[in-house]
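S1.2 Input.
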Amino acid sequence: MPFDFQNDLGSVSEARRRNYHAGVSAELAVQRHYCRQGATLRETRWRGRCGEIDLILSEGDTIVFVEVKKSRTHAQAAQRVSTRQMARLLLSAEDYLGSCPNGSLTDARLDVALVDDQGRIDIIPNASMGA
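S1.3 Output.
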């Protein structure tokens, strides 16, 4: 049969599964990176009304929202962060801050963590300032 849809679906499913696990692995590596520097994990894959935030940590009184991007290179990972996605992340962060005692007055920032195929991590601190 010229079109074997079972095999096509199986390979797509396998690729998605592999990408999912690579993403989870990257998030765990970034989480360890922040925690080694003294941050405290608050949430993983937190879901608000506007979308998901990969990691939410505390550094003293500062809340750090982290978007993790995994790709072959750091440059390719950075290209995967769109202006639309940054806007959605900022709305989600606002949603989260609404549950904090000081609300929107809470000291906070949004970092983007880039992870390459070698597992190297590059953090773009306060990345939302460029959005």
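S1.4 Remarks. The chain has a mean pLDDT of 89.
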